[in-house]
Design brief:
With about 170 residues, the protein is of the alpha+beta class. It has 2 domains: about 10-25 and about 70-165, Reverse transcriptase/Diguanylate cyclase domain (Alpha-Beta Plaits, 2-Layer Sandwich); about 25-65, no CATH class. The chain is built from 4 helices and 11 strands, in the order E-E-H-H-E-H-E-E-E-E-H-E-E-E-E. The strands form 3 sheets. It has a 6-stranded antiparallel beta sheet, covered by helices on one side. A hairpin with a 5-residue loop joins strand 5 and strand 6. The longest helix is centred in the middle third of the chain and has 13 residues, at about 75-85. The protein starts with 11 loop residues before the first strand and ends in a 5-residue tail after the last strand.
């Protein structure tokens, strides 16, 4: 049974970045594509002896996991993510997609692309979530909750304010 506590403590935030989120997703049916040899760097052609495998100047590739550019990549990644969280007793809120809650713990999160923002009261609750994700995903953690979807977040919990900025934009 999971340990969940909520003793009226203030809510904290962590931002998680799931590395290669789309690329981790296995395909139920393999995809096939054709690529021209001229699209490959020479060292790749040599390393994999692609000249001997080419037909009419192209090679055919079997894809076993999702790749960027597949129309179904987003849906497949979300389904895979659901498949991994449901056994841990997390569920997606029915009236607001991409918001996740736990059936007992006071923890809530949002998923946008490969960015996962988590609101929690107890560190052990977020540690349980991280542990359940680490089995299938590589994560980077920002315990200050300062970077989400390319937006810098500066939290002032005492004054209950948040400053946001995107330093690379005007």
């Amino acid at each position: 049974m999971e340990q969940c506590n909520d003793h009226g403590e203030s809510k904290l935030y962590i931002c998680l970045d799931i590395k290669n989120f789309y690329l981790c997703t296995p395909l139920a049916q393999y995809e096939y594509m054709r690529m021209k040899l001229t699209d490959f760097p020479e060292h790749i052609i040599q390393q994999y002896d692609l000249n001997s495998k080419a037909k009419t100047g192209s090679v055919y590739i079997k894809t076993r996991q999702s790749i960027y550019g597949l129309p179904q990549s987003g849906r497949l990644a979300n389904d895979f993510f659901c498949e991994k969280l449901h056994p841990q007793r997390y569920y997606e809120v029915s009236h607001t997609l991409r918001i996740w809650k736990h059936v007992r713990c006071p923890i809530q999160s949002t998923l946008v692309m490969d960015n996962f923002r988590v609101k929690y009261s107890q560190k052990q609750d977020v540690d349980n979530l991280i542990q359940s994700l680490k089995n299938d995903f590589t994560l980077s953690k920002d315990w200050k909750g300062g970077l989400y979807c390319g937006i810098l977040l500066s939290w002032d919990y005492e004054n209950r304010t948040l400053d946001i900025s995107m330093t690379s934009y005007i």
